[in-house]
Design brief:
alpha+beta, Nuclear Transport Factor 2, Chain: A, 2 helices, signal
Length: about 100
């Protein structure tokens, strides 16, 4: 391989690495827990789901905790372990509380 081509290949590999590292969870889709399992976990933890979606290869729950504070929870889709949880200081509007 010519030196110029080798350099270009190295640069391409380095630039592609961050794109591959963007996903926080890297579980094969065949090994994912079903959405029903995520919903059951949320119920056990006292989280009310406003939105359940996939972000960075993880399940992500946007909703409220049992005290009514907004939460964003990222879960490993294979084990349902909490990858990240953010709790906001905002509470759910009173008309939306149980």
């Amino acid at each position: 391989m010519r030196p110029g081509m080798r350099t270009m290949a190295l640069v391409a590999a380095v630039l592609a690495a961050p794109a591959a590292a963007d996903d926080e969870c890297s579980v094969a889709m065949a090994d994912w827990q079903p959405r029903a399992a995520v919903e059951a976990l949320a119920a056990r933890e006292g989280w009310t789901i406003r939105r359940l979606h996939v972000d960075d290869g993880c399940y992500e729950i946007d909703g409220w905790d049992r005290e009514g504070f907004e939460v964003e929870v990222k879960l490993d889709p294979g084990s349902l372990a909490v990858v990240e949880i953010e709790r906001e200081e905002r509470r759910r509007p009173k008309d939306r509380r149980k």
